[in-house]
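User: quick one, sequence for these tokens?
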């Protein structure tokens, strides 16, 4: 099941997410990072060196959460998503395809020699007050049977 077009349009329109992880010592950690969106796979791609706190966390605890939001001046303009995802460090052909997409969006990133990660979206809750106060749109990945 593809996500509601309002969700995919919002994800494509933005480029920074907040990633929340659990560190190897079981404490929480959050960071902001640039991303690109693969709509067909419902993956968010990001770069992260293995020495970062969040990369160490994703290796140990691949279940992550995050947000993508704007910074409005009024409550009536609030828009954003909260998501749950499974993080995977990409390798080989999957990594090559993801790097191509990432570098198209962020050419400056070519100088960063960092692994590329996929956040395989599992569930999304979108709030969009432009559609009505506290208007929510949900998406949940269908599991293979």
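Assistant:
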């Amino acid at each position: 099941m593809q996500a509601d077009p309002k969700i995919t349009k919002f994800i494509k329109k933005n480029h920074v997410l907040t990633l929340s992880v659990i560190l190897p010592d079981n404490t929480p950690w959050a960071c902001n990072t640039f991303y690109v969106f693969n709509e067909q796979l419902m993956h968010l791609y990001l770069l992260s060196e293995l020495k970062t706190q969040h990369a160490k966390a994703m290796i140990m605890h691949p279940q992550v959460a995050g947000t993508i939001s704007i910074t409005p001046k009024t409550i009536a303009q609030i828009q954003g998503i909260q998501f749950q995802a499974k993080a995977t460090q990409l390798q080989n052909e999957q990594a090559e395809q993801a790097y191509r997409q990432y570098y198209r969006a962020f050419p400056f990133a070519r100088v960063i020699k960092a692994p590329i990660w996929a956040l395989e979206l599992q569930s999304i809750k979108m709030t969009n007050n432009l559609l009505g106060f506290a208007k929510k749109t949900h998406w949940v990945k269908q599991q293979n049977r």
